[in-house]
Description:
By secondary structure, this protein is mainly alpha-helical. It has helices at residues 3-21, 26-33, 37-49, 65-89, 93-103, 109-121, and strands spanning 53-55, 61-63. The chain has 6 helices and 2 strands. The protein is elongated, with a radius of gyration of 15 Å. 21% of the residues are buried.
Amino acid sequence: MRAKESREMYLETILRLEKKNGVVRSVDIAKEFNYSKPSISKAMNVLKKSGLITHTPYGDISLTKQGRQKAEQIFKLHRLVKEFLIRSLNLDEKTAEQDACRMEHIISDKAILAIEKYLEND
């Protein structure tokens, strides 16, 4: 996984867990990805240094304003691509979810606009 994709996956996961649980801790993210706690700690330090999250050792993880904007953008794109795959290609939800998770990191702005237009007219 490339660094940008990894960062985006973490941000989106933090947003989803926050919506689901109210608070997010490293252990929640570790369970979500099935990664070790030290791996998650390292990734959270990168996000913190980038100004995308706030995190205290053994404390809650919160998205900064910049991190929240980025996470919401990724989450919106994920839902858009997933919906497109289901409605246009008749993919089952599980396959669409998995493919959208990969595609959201590489899709062009031009393709996004075309998908939005397609879904509006469908």
